[in-house]
């Protein structure tokens, strides 16, 4: 016997009925994005490796440790399975000159890949939904995107989420803060762990994101970037806060919020929860006005966010949010496989009229007993059974039986004529 093959560790199959929860979430997102005038974009799963090295930063965890990178065997090109999609969206917008006629509001859904230790809500193939607004410099678009994410939580029935907010200012302001951080940490070098020491001079801002308990008092007392911001950066941040305040959206200023990518400037934010343990961040983003230029395009402002689909679905479970499962409207019970040439055209017409029909399938020419078919009809969740029995077919009719305790009036109780207008069937079955 051949060796049984299984999925790659950390890359999961999504099976029914669980896949219905994914479809439900995706439908909610599509409807919400349309209300905010965001349009769908789909980019390749495989991108040139330099796109992420330049865009995310060489000393980020993603680039240093987590990317699935390989060399194309045909031409030697360095390629990477996308670990996130903002860089890919920016590459596509730049490559196709999409900002030539003005700003664009875009959203995406799809799989991302990082070589991490699999754990709850954190997998090697994971899925993100993201929204990106490119070509807009105003604080009002930062606020709009934050409000868009908050509207999604309300739409999904998620309440245990809080917003954390910060500003990273502009590059020249971060240089001053960087120098102050290095001096501060050098003066307390004995408290730093090995990872912090390694990053001290290459990316000191990332030290603020450390989860090492022994370093927390030191990090809390570290110089705050907010103290180094100029008036323009402060005005931008204050305008974002003013719009959020006007919409009644509560937030907490978190001076240690720096995000995991190097491309951010000005506004950064995260939506976090206490319900998922260590994987508490379910959505994060911010402004990235220099990313397009970093990957070779013409400089343009941009802001966006991404959420982790697996984490949101876990949170829905924690909140006990019921996601409806798809069920057929009718289950077709067929007593004799030889009658299929008569039965199938009727089922096809019903489906064309919008009725969801599940057809009973037997084993070869054996369809199974009426009792077993009714049991499967009940299990399917269908409201009605359509019974194509020998007696009914002989009379060119079909019997209709409610499966959910409904009662039919005298007109509905009459057998439906096979040769009658199928559209009238559909109205009855969908009522």
Automatic annotation (TrEMBL):
The alphabetized UniProt keywords are: Aminoacyl-tRNA synthetase, ATP-binding, Cytoplasm, Ligase, Nucleotide-binding, Protein biosynthesis
Q: Which residues bind L-histidine?
A: 84-86, 114, 128, 132, 259, 263-264
> Which Gene Ontology molecular-function terms are recorded?
ATP binding; histidine-tRNA ligase activity
Q: Report domain Aminoacyl-transfer RNA synthetases class-II family profile positions.
A: 25-324
Q: Which reaction does it catalyse?
A: tRNA(His) + L-histidine + ATP = L-histidyl-tRNA(His) + AMP + diphosphate + H(+)
What is the main EC category here?
A: ligase
HAMAP family, per this entry? Answer: His_tRNA_synth
Question: NCBIfam families this protein is in?
Answer: hisS (TIGR00442)
State the protein's name: Histidine--tRNA ligase
| Taxonomic placement | Bacteria, Pseudomonadati, Pseudomonadota, Betaproteobacteria, Burkholderiales
Query: Gene encoding it?
Result: hisS
